[in-house]
Amino acid sequence: MVCQDPLVERVCELYEKISSLESLKPSKHVDSLFTQLVLTCIPPNPIDVTKLCHRVQEIRSKLILLCGEAEGHLESHYSAILGSYDNPLDHLYLFPYFTNYLKLADLEFTILTQFSSAELTRVAFVGSGPLPLTSIVLAKNHMPAALFDNYDIDPSANSKARKLVSPDPNLSQRMFFHDTDIMDVTTKLKDYQAIFLAALVGMDREEKLKVIDHLGKHMENGAILMLRSAHGARGFLYPVVDPIELGGFEVLSVFHPTDEVINSVIIARKLSVRDHLRLQQGIGSPPPLIMMPSKCCTDDMHQNFNLLNHGDVVEKLAIEEQSS
Questions:
Q1: Are 216 and 305 within one domain?
Q2: Does residue 132 share a domain with residue 34?
Q3: What are the residue ranges of helices labelled H in the chain?
Q4: pTM, 2 dp
Q5: Residue pLDDT, tens place only, 33-84
Q6: Where in the sequence is the domain holding 277, given as residue range(s)?
């Protein structure tokens, strides 16, 4: 297909350099390569990465794994730094993109409240990692009474995350961390009014759909699923979720950012059997698919890319606020 496209060739060139690195832990050279990758993939592009030739599909799959590994190293690095303080949450600003997390969480909460009028009292975040900033920001700023269950299969990641919130008298009573594979959680999933699925839970299409299918079988009818996907060339950085494949859910809306926010956001509602049959019969209108610049980005953020901290660049915005 378009395997000779200049963008594809540039991505493949960067993959060769990244895959030859001895370590993906933060360093000047590693940071530079990942920033170049993000700068290549972030401009809006109509390319469908799922339909590229077999060779490029293999490279894309490996590149997503490398991005996830690099992201994990960076999060662990900063979580350890923050955990060294008596009150880690007082120092979150040390994370270079913390302000961006604040704005992105505001965006996701705004999307959530558009489709869920009830006050949320218990939510889950699947794939929370060692630096669960999304959960922390939502709990502190947007859902001050809600309980948060954070799931990650890596005990060391949860240990670091617990250390961040344990000194806080409020969050320590509302945020819980489970060393559990979400595929082993069944009846408890009915407790949640909303479940957030991290972009790197399920590193390929089959694995991602298996997790979504599991959630669809066990979530409460009417509960909200918020998951992150990727669109266009950004699919070289993250797995792509096709909304059509969300069996058991009614897709409410799909947000494809066209600016520095890398992940698309899909919001869906768990269907009852009767509602599922209604949709199968064609009753009801399809969800809107929205191409939009993320509202979490202000004009002063559209300036220079920072060549540091590639992990957060790959996960989130790839932008450093110049006012910091």
A1: no
A2: no
A3: 6-19, 28-41, 54-83, 98-115, 133-137, 155-165, 205-218, 273-280, 310-315
A4: 0.83
A5: 999 999 999 998 889 998 999 999 999 999 999 999 998 998 899 999 999 9
A6: 97-299
